[in-house]
């Protein structure tokens, strides 16, 4: 067989990396090259795109070190029993690609993951070597996200955070039963143990930085994880509960949800069809409710149906409001922030604007209309100076009246 060129391997390994959604770069420490000899930056305007907290788009080279793997996870295109084309980079080749892409202004950082070759610890050493060469030999100051391998030696997992801005360890599936069935080579205990190791290292590094400014940083953008949705029988309520537990136990920056995608020569234990993409979106919305809107996990789970599934035609915030109509309407001129955040159609920015404006004057319905995309969605749930919904909130067909049209379904609470 003819030896593959670098570009051929790049094509294979960049395509193989597309299934990993957890490549966002928000929360990283800012570094630039001004006044020094280093190259790269996590600042400025930016072949994968991630977004910083202020909305900047950051372009990342997103590849696998190799798609060879000794594991046989049923849902993975790179499992050892798959007949996919294989390729492999050396650490130096990944370094050269990263620098070449950066110098052409294609990227601002690197997202690096890998299949497992030889052993988990051997592969983890290779991933760390890429980051070490970039940081120590080339003074690379751009963003680096390393996907760590929970089965590797804990010391190696901990070392990754000394070079990477963010590290992530995928929990893979929402339930232990699903993981046991679909990823027999993986252990839920090992995965959570590795996440705990990273969390402890992050906390220790922050404490050390408070005492000694010269103390090394450790994964300043924190850690994240990813769950596959729709590959097993887990309901949305199960997934919401699992995500909440992960946030609480490991102080994660993000939990990412990735809709299961059928793969060639798939195992018979996998579903024949992928779940609706809107389901993935609804789970992200539920995640937002817990992180930014003050909803407890149990409240988000109350928005599900009898089978524990979130409705696909309306967002979970609206679904919750329709179930608990006794909490509405909310007076926009008197209600506290917590109550306003529960009004369907009002996002965080809209609520902040209402709180600022009502210090000056009484707000009318026209004022609210300027802060939301769908006034029809908002009206049944609020009281304004010139508006009271009267019996509208209690109408039997209210769901039909407030459900968004198909073109509007992907709005995230219409902030």
From TrEMBL:
<dbReference type="InterPro" id="IPR010994">
    <property type="entry name" value="RuvA_2-like"/>
</dbReference>
<dbReference type="InterPro" id="IPR058240">
    <property type="entry name" value="rSAM_sf"/>
</dbReference>
<feature type="domain" description="Radical SAM core">
    <location>
        <begin position="53"/>
        <end position="296"/>
    </location>
</feature>
<dbReference type="GO" id="GO:0003824">
    <property type="term" value="F:catalytic activity"/>
</dbReference>
<dbReference type="InterPro" id="IPR007197">
    <property type="entry name" value="rSAM"/>
</dbReference>
<dbReference type="InterPro" id="IPR006638">
    <property type="entry name" value="Elp3/MiaA/NifB-like_rSAM"/>
</dbReference>
<keyword id="KW-0949">S-adenosyl-L-methionine</keyword>
<dbReference type="InterPro" id="IPR051675">
    <property type="entry name" value="Endo/Exo/Phosphatase_dom_1"/>
</dbReference>
<keyword id="KW-0408">Iron</keyword>
<keyword id="KW-0479">Metal-binding</keyword>
<dbReference type="InterPro" id="IPR013785">
    <property type="entry name" value="Aldolase_TIM"/>
</dbReference>
<dbReference type="GO" id="GO:0046872">
    <property type="term" value="F:metal ion binding"/>
</dbReference>
<dbReference type="GO" id="GO:0051536">
    <property type="term" value="F:iron-sulfur cluster binding"/>
</dbReference>
<keyword id="KW-0411">Iron-sulfur</keyword>
<dbReference type="InterPro" id="IPR023874">
    <property type="entry name" value="DNA_rSAM_put"/>
</dbReference>
<protein>
    <submittedName>
        <fullName>Putative DNA modification/repair radical SAM protein</fullName>
    </submittedName>
</protein>
<dbReference type="Pfam" id="PF04055">
    <property type="entry name" value="Radical_SAM"/>
</dbReference>
